[in-house]
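Write out this protein's structure.
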Amino acid sequence: MLKRVRIFLRTERHGVAAQLFEDVATGMSEADVFVNSMLEPQDDDEGPQSMEMYSDARLRLTDDMFSLSYEESELTGMAGTSSQLSFMRSQPELVTMLRSGSVSTALVFEPNKRHFCTYKTPFMPFEVCVHTLRIDNKLLSEAASLDLDYIVEIRGAQAERCRLHLEIKE
C-alpha cells in the first residue's frame, strides 16, 4: 500500500559534553557510555535549537516493512534532501533514517546502542556516532507517532542531544 499523508515534525537539539568516540577508544563499558550520554545539556547563550514543520510524505506499508519518505525544507538546513524513515514491522524499535540529495547518510536508531555512519555533505564527508537513548514507535498504531531521543557526535566536535517527534496527520 502506498499513500500520501501529511506529517508534523518537531526537533530539539542541545549541546552535551559526552564524547562517544573517545568512550569506544578507551574501552568503556556500555553502561558507562550510557551514563556519559545522559549528561545534562550544556548551558549556552542560545539555549536549545528547535524547529517545527509540516510536510507532505509518502507512506509505504507492506507485509513486513513500514517506510515514510518526505522532502526536507530550508527550515531543517537540508533543502534538496529526501529523508526516509523505515523499520521492519517485527522490529519497530530498530529505525533507519536514509537521507539522499544535498546531504546523504544512513542513521540507525536502536535503544541503548551506538551506531557509526558517514555523513556526506557538499563540503566533505565526516563520520558520526549515534547513540539512541529512547525510541517510542507508535507509527503502526492509531496514534501514528514516533519519538526518538539520541545523542549524535561528529568526530572531533562536541556532541548534541537530539529529540525528534513525528506525527502522521491523515
